[in-house]
Design brief:
There is one protein chain. Helix 6 crosses helix 8. The protein has 16 helices and 21 strands. The chain has 3 domains: about 230 residues, TIM Barrel, CATH 3.20.20; about 80 residues, Beta Barrel (M1 Pyruvate Kinase, Domain 3), CATH 2.40.33.10; about 120 residues, Pyruvate Kinase, Chain: A, domain 1 (3-Layer(aba) Sandwich). The strands form 4 sheets. An 8-stranded parallel beta barrel has the order 1-2-3-12-13-14-15-16, surrounded by 6 helices. A 6-stranded mixed β-sheet has the order 6-5-9-8-7-11, covered by helices on one side. It has a 5-stranded mixed β-sheet with strand order 19-18-17-20-21, sandwiched between helices. It is about 35% helix and about 25% strand.
């Protein structure tokens, strides 16, 4: 199942896509990665979905990545007498630790970490920012606020504190249970939510110990202050525009998205743009023009992957949403202007041998009109370096490590093939050429450019480039 595009598609599974037939349809339509959201569903239900994905992978012979998305700490208010209350703009409103039912003057906020961090003039956002409060005074277990934007507020609505760095861990007890489940059941990527600082990722990396790729979800404004460090510590990054769009002004999100993508491109780390990309397709069989433009912009900016959330998890038109995303990507990548943008934004090689080889491979492939670039990798680093250069020919990865092949399903332009171990570089070149030919990328008489690290199995040791005629 060769893809005719470079950017990848992530589809979230849920009630609308839980059978083998439904999930296989999404894969056939273009889904390269399946996301499991630990905010919903039991472990038994999620394990069944993993089994279905692996069954489809075996059937089609194409590596499929599974992204497990941890919920992270969720801040929520308590309850109201009668289930809801109306907060009026300009009036005072109290947040406190009392368990008593709330009303139009106060409600419980059972999170002592929030009160410890709030300061006067900080904002507290309720119900995805629909209700906005400004702190006037706070104590050890309460905060007196003024309602900036009023509205009807009901039980257990979410809380965001965009001006505040909280003294709480990114992993809850539930997250730790979910993480053990994900690692025990072969997750390829794990998404870490609620990152506030680089230390959150560093601590997470110690727990994961290389058993899955770490995807840092950037959804807190405070994370932007340590963006370089977070990108360096992560294996991939997600621009999580849901909470990000709540905690910062909407007009700031597009520039932040571009900033994150640029940092990831420079570091050679895959970057995903997510949330509300084709939101109207939850109910409608076609997206709005603005949504189509949103997906296109992410592709023009150089994102490795774009993600569907509710569109495929609970939407009435899940296969159509994947098809539409596929069509938008192919239309953008077929635009001559896209290639000129890609060339203009291509990253310069870093000052090391491995990057010099992969940069040269892209130049050589373009100069001799090669049919493809072939990389042989164990850890995936050789292939990710090649993808960072955004070559204008197909990029084929050969690896003996199935887990590596699955993780690379997320990376821009990579077509991964699992093959057996090889004993010499010559054997690897011949095998690579045969597989490229059998996959339909190369025909007899055409040239390919081959890169690898010798001796094999040494991570990051890309040091050989060869031109080979099939």
């Amino acid at each position: 199942m060769r893809r005719r595009r470079n950017a990848k598609i992530i589809a979230t599974l849920g009630p609308a896509t839980r059978t083998t037939r439904q999930i296989e349809t999404l894969h056939r339509r273009g889904a390269d990665v399946f996301r499991l959201n630990f905010s919903h569903g039991s472990h038994d239900e999620l394990k069944a979905l993993i089994g279905i994905v692996r069954k489809i992978e075996r059937k089609h012979g194409r590596p499929i990545a599974i992204l497990t998305d941890l919920q992270g700490p969720k801040l929520r208010i308590g309850t109201f007498g009668g289930g809801q209350a109306t907060l009026r703009t300009g009036e005072k409103f109290r947040l406190d630790m009392s368990r008593a039912a709330g009303d139009g003057r106060r409600v419980s906020l059972p999170h002592k970490e929030v009160f410890a961090a709030l300061e006067p003039k900080h904002h507290v956002l309720l119900d995805d920012g629909r209700v906005r409060l400004r702190v006037e005074h706070r104590g050890r277990d309460y905060a007196e606020t003024r309602v900036v934007t009023g509205g009807v507020l009901s039980d257990h609505k979410g809380v965001n504190v965009p001006d505040t760095v909280l003294a709480m861990k990114a992993l809850t007890a539930k997250d730790r249970r979910d993480l053990r489940f994900a690692l025990d059941n072969g997750a390829d990527w794990v998404g870490l939510s609620f990152i506030q600082r680089a230390q959150d990722v560093a601590e997470f990396r110690k727990i994961v110990k290389g058993r899955a790729g770490i995807m840092a979800k950037l959804e807190k404004p405070s994370a932007m202050d340590e963006l370089d460090e977070i990108v360096a510590l992560s294996d991939a990054v997600m621009v999580a525009r849901g909470d990000l769009g709540v905690e910062m002004p909407p007009e700031a999100v597009p520039t932040v998205q571009k900033q994150i993508i640029r940092h990831c491109r420079e570091a050679g780390k895959p970057v995903v743009v997510a949330t509300q990309m084709l939101e109207s397709m939850i109910r409608s069989p076609a997206p709005t023009r603005a949504e189509a433009s949103d997906v296109a912009t992410a592709i023009y900016d150089g994102a490795d992957a774009v993600m569907l959330s509710a569109e495929t998890a609970v939407g009435a038109h899940a296969p159509a949403a994947v098809t539409m995303m596929e069509r938008i990507i192919r239309r953008v990548e077929g635009d001559p202007h896209y290639r000129s943008i890609t060339e203009a934004s291509r990253e310069e090689a870093l000052g090391n041998d491995a990057d010099a080889i992969t940069a040269a491979a892209r130049t050589v492939a373009h100069t001799i009109s090669a049919a493809a670039i072939l990389t042989y990798t164990t850890s995936g680093s050789t292939t990710l370096r090649a993808a960072r250069q955004r070559p204008d020919v197909p990029l084929i990865c050969l690896t003996g490590n199935r887990n590596t092949a699955r993780r690379l399903a997320l990376a821009w332009g990579v077509h991964a093939v699992v093959t057996g171990d090889v004993r010499s570089f010559d054997e690897m070149v011949r095998r690579a050429a045969r597989l490229a030919s059998s996959e339909g990328f190369v025909h007899k008489g055409q040239k390919v450019v081959v890169t690898a690290g010798v001796p094999f199995g040494t991570p990051g040791a890309t040091n050989v480039l060869r031109i080979y005629t099939v």
